[in-house]
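Write out this protein's structure.
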Amino acid sequence: MGRTKGKRLRQAVGIFVSICLAVGIYVPSADAAEAAAAPKVVKAQMINSTDMELYWDQEVTGAGEEANFSITVDGKEDKIYSYTWPEYNYSETGIVYYNSYSLENPDALDAPKTSIRLTDEIADLENLPEIKVTIAGGKIKNAAGTYAEEQTVTVDRYEPFYTQEITLDCGVKILGSKNARADAMTKAEEMMEVILANEEIAKRMGEYGCMLGIYGEGEIAFDIPEHRFTYDESGLYVEGFGGTQLASIKDANVLRLTTGDYTTGYVDESVLTHEFAHTIKNYGLTEAQQQKVETVYNSAIASGKWANSYAGSNSDEYFATISAMWFNAMNDTEDGQWDGVRGPINTREELKAYDNAAYELLSEIYVSDQYLPEPWQNGSVPNNYEYTGTGTDVGGETDDSPYQRIASKASGTSYDSCIEVNSGLQTEGATVDIWWNFDENASLGWLFEKADGNYYKIKFYDSGLVLTPSGGSKEEGAAITIGKDTGADSQLWQVKKTSGDYALILNKASGLALSIQGDAVTEGNLIVQTAYTGEGSDYQQWKIYDASTKAVFTPEEAAEADKKALNDAITAAKALKEADYTADSWKKFSEALMAAQAVADKTDAAQEEVDAAAKELADAQAALVKAGSTDQPGGSTDQPGGNTDQPGGSTDQPGGSTDQPGGNADQPGANAAVKVSSVKFSAKTYKVLAGKKLDLSKKVTVSPSNAANKALKWAVSNTKYATVSAKGVVSAKAAGAGKTVTVTAAATDGSG
């Protein structure tokens, strides 16, 4: 779709590896006690011909799920809008719940609301029909766990989101929310007249009904109705979107506000220029011009230009970024190095010297003697690094490390979406998700380290942490995280080639395949493990390629294990008769035989695994006890009270201790102390008011129930916002208001 993606700043809320679990702790910024009263909708209104808002009296969960709402218009059912774009594996449903806030003042929470888009438009907003929304009871709850009762609300008011409008001569409209500053509207008009000075392009934009939407203080980019249903909490810092019929922009960036309580986060970059360029590319250019953008971009990339930069990520960002450079409204790096987003090039003249084909392309699209008005006038953006090269001696540093990218087959060839760790966090328990491959450096790369057999440890960047299902889970749907390398089977993966350049990535412990949650290539969707058949779905197939050379990764095939000794042992074991031995000893022997047969049947069993199975079977067979015999394996008993030569010691008198197989835990064959297999919280997120405490030890379950040592080690991701005691009591600090931290609980018995 060509909208700005950018780097994210996200808090990891999630799940940790092996016998360790992380849970998100959210500290509400309101001082009121957590509401115990049932939540309800207190205001309902239409904001345009299709979109309505339902305002809740408190924060809730479940209020963004389509199944919890039904709508009638004049007594007839009206469906909630939905849309799919198969070409980009994109889908959108017209319902979202969120509680927006201003980044400048995160304590100033807006009222939490559910936005719903109707399939059919309301023709007369001044004389609304009877619109009723029924909210299902027992589905939506507040932080205290109190569920909303069934409620039917009437949407009987119209409060338009846009209250300001300017129409350019070409027909392109500038729309402003009630919070957008009036001077930002007029300044945007001045800027758009320059950007659309090419009359042919301006005419096409007007014919397509293109618009610019401006929002103001106390609002976020996702409040724009046209972008609301793409809400993503990780993008709250964004100051505009582009590529769609309506591009959006924050008024503070239009006015370049840099001082006071309300400012732009992009002091030296015109977000309007960048985002509206996305819309120009999709609506203002002819097909021939669009194809020329692709050709110029591909040529630049092939020649090594724009590597490790935002412009180099794809043709959409290439066009938007060089457009900002054309108007001298783009920042650069102070040292002239490419940092994954920016580099030494940020002016029209530097663009001409570095990528002349790009300069010539834009000369056909924009008017050469036009520059933006104040406060974005020519020369107002600092040129930190003066580029004077010829266009061939500066290029982004490509990564020459051995790191791999893991790209989804479902994302296609033109829009790589890759496996990454949430926000690039190098912390145990960080969740793994799908994200747009916006640059080619190794900061989101993976190292495939060969393990035994046909398996690999998949290590994240240079952290040493490895890919693993949360808690070492074997369950389908378990989220994938990164964690400390323990050598567990749950941290080993087989790369199984399918067709073309793609492969399945299979977990050794569970046999399940890496997959995108929900079978949707949506940025931020978690990576999970799921069952597969055949080659698996496109959401389970991955192209693994070198971050530098783009060469496709080829897994090493281990030599087939020698199973002759194991198979001979199995044949001999099967000749034994159960009736000849005691029930207890035969039970252990039978289990070892079954395990050995399973290894023998595995086509990818490692030699070490085969040898271990053979030894375990031999040991179990040696420990068999003849039925009716007083003889014990490993020694002889002469007389009661006599000398008993047993492993571990001697028994001199009846009643003395006999250290035998099956005896105390210190002897061969003894019952080992039961270790922890899982740690689970009752929820993924808890809310704690600033200055209050929450005892998480009462909300965690340690399994199995007969584990010998259930003690947990507690830790918190950011002690600036919250602390956790050795007993699991979380204390929220005032500085954590509106923040989310991750608390981890890890077993201390050595199980992981």
